[in-house]
Amino acid sequence: MIEIYNLQKSYDNTKILKNIDLTILDGEIYGLVGRSGAGKSTLLRCMNGLEQYDSGSLKINGFEIKDHSAQEIRQFRKNIGMIFQHFSLMERKTVYQNIALPMECWNYPKKEIDKRVKELLKIVDLEDKINERPRSLSGGQKQRVAIARALSLNPKILLCDEATSALDPKTTQSILLLLKKINETLGIAVVLVTHQMSVVRQVCNKMCILENGEITAKGAVGEIFMKRPQSLKNLLGDDEEEVLPLNGTNIKITYTEASVNERVLSDMAQKLGIGFSLVWAKTEKYRDMVLGWVIINVDEANVPVVGEYLTGLRARWEVLNNESQ
Ligand code: ADP
Asked: N or C: which end of the chain has fewer CB within 10 A?
């Protein structure tokens, strides 16, 4: 479990992380998202003790990083695996030697290293590449080696810094599936720093958004995408802009998995006996749910009756005002 309270961090008198409060539970896949420069990597480096923080508290399974010596932190870091965008493999070493490296540094017996490396090669599905060198591997295979190496000391937490940003969409997909498998079968919490919203939607159950060193939204992924706070809209950018009619009233209805098959709109048209136009619709799949949005355009005079009908269905809806169009 990672517990962060009121964490502050500066570089050269510039505040980089401000009032960070965050709890990441065992077994979660937690997405840390934000624009470049928001402070995501700095927060990740604070989590594994590579960076000190100025004040506040950061505990990993009860271990308060700032209360310990460099030697203690080094020992503690065995509990945390980390992978990076550019893999950081040793080019002159084979796949086997790369994965064995952390265990060799900690002087594990050769026999134990051999057993563990072979187990890990199986988990990451690279048994046939055991004697290859990184240059003969694809990007996805290199990231698999890096994941195996990060797991070699049996960590409780895996930190991923833009781990799929250098990969094509198909390879990204396979690496995300691997991270999910590791999370589920080994019970390892995964913290994913990413600017790719599709990554968060596919594998994370919780997320937070960092903007200029501050957390501006946090919670369950489906909930945040449903509420669409401004900080999420800022990240999603132009893709989100709908072109809407200026006449009549535009009503946005958000539906969740539970109501997805309820044919809300056709029933409403029948029951209320009114016409409307469907002007925009979108469905998105998340790790654990489906979310959908539709925007309908109704005559202004019909807004109260439509509103009453939707409220009666307990649907989430809102009238979009002209500024948001
Ligand atoms: P992100 O991972 O969200 O892109 P970073 O955590 O890398 O953001 O950086 C946050 C801010 O901190 C940036 O303005 C960056 O320039 C600054 N920064 C990061 N590392 C250092 C450092 N070692 N010294 C000074 N400033 C730094």
From this structure: C
| Chain segment 289-319, per-residue pLDDT in tens | 888 888 899 998 999 999 998 888 878 888 9
Show the CA angle centred on residue 11, arms to residues 6 and 15, nearest 5°. 45
For strands 29-33 and 206-211, give the pairing: parallel
Domains of the chain: 2-234 (3.40.50.300), 239-319 (3.30.70.260)
Q: Is the CB of 14 under 6 A from ligand 1?
A: no
Nearest protein Cα to ligand 1, atom 6: 39
- Residues 265 and 253: their CA atoms lie apart, in Å, by 10
Verify whether ligand 1 is closer than 6 Å to residue 36 (CB atom): yes
Report the pLDDT averaged over residues 77-95.
93
d(CA 239, CA 242): 8
For ligand 1, pick from 8, 10, 11 the residue to mutate: most ligand atoms within 8 Å of CB. 11
Q: What confidence tens digit (pLDDT) does each residue in 250-301 have?
A: 998 888 765 555 577 888 888 888 888 888 888 888 887 888 888 899 998 9
